[in-house]
Write a structure and sequence with these properties.
By secondary structure, the protein is an all-alpha fold. Helices cover 70% and strands 0% of the residues.
Length: 180
C-alpha cells in the first residue's frame, strides 16, 4: 500500500482503511513538522500543533474532496491555519525558530568551530527571513527549507506558479540585501 498515491490513500482512508491513514501520516509528518517548527519556537508546542493538524486531518478526511488541488495543499493549509492561530493567540510568547531542524542535530564528532559558524549563519538567515513580508517568507520556507516544487507551493498558497516565482524572486533579493 506504500506505493499508492495520496489520492488513492485518501480514497481508501475514506472507505475506512486505517492503514491508509497511517501511511498518509508517515508520508507527510516530517514535512509538516518542519513547516510548523520553522514558524514556532518551542519544539513541544510544535509537536502539539502537528498533532492537532493530523487530528484535524483524520476528523475531516471524510469530507475531503480533491477539487483540483493535491492532498498536500489541503494538509498544508490545515497546518498553516493552526500555526497562525497559535502565533496569533500568543504573539509575544513565541519567536521564530532557528532554522536548524530536529533531525539535523549536530553529532558529537562535528568540529565545534564548524558548528558555531553554521549556527551564526543560520541566525543571520533567520533574522533576514523575519524582515520579509509574510507571503515571501512562506514561499522561501516552503521552497527551500521544505523542498516543495513551485507547482506545489502555488497550490498550497492558492496562487499561480508565476506569482510564486515572483514572490520567490523578491524574497531572495530581499534576503540578499538583508544579509549584506
Amino acid at each position: 500500500m506504500q506505493d499508492l498515491s495520496d489520492a488513492e490513500l485518501v480514497e481508501r482512508a475514506q472507505d475506512g482503511e486505517h492503514d491508509a491513514i497511517s501511511i498518509l501520516y508517515d508520508r507527510h509528518h516530517t514535512r509538516i513538522f518542519r513547516y510548523v517548527r520553522a514558524r514556532i519556537y518551542d519544539t513541544h508546542l510544535a509537536q502539539d500543533v502537528v498533532g492537532e493538524v493530523f487530528l484535524k486531518m483524520v476528523t475531516h478526511l471524510p469530507e475531503y474532496r480533491e477539487m483540483g488541488l493535491p492532498f498536500t495543499a489541503w494538509l498544508y493549509r490545515i497546518a498553516h491555519n493552526h500555526v497562525v492561530n497559535h502565533i496569533g493567540r500568543k504573539e509575544n510568547q513565541y519567536q521564530h525558530v532557528p532554522l536548524v531542524m530536529a533531525e539535523a542535530v549536530n553529532s558529537r564528532k562535528d568540529n565545534p568551530a564548524v558548528v558555531i559558524e553554521r549556527q551564526l549563519v543560520l541566525e543571520e538567515v533567520q533574522k533576514a527571513l523575519a524582515r520579509l513580508d509574510d507571503i515571501q517568507r512562506e514561499v522561501i520556507i516552503l521552497r527551500f527549507l521544505l523542498g516543495y516544487s513551485l507547482k506545489e507551493v502555488a497550490a498550497m498558497l492558492d496562487k499561480s506558479v508565476a506569482a510564486v516565482k515572483s514572490q520567490q524572486h523578491r524574497g531572495l533579493l530581499a534576503l540578499e540585501v538583508a544579509v549584506k
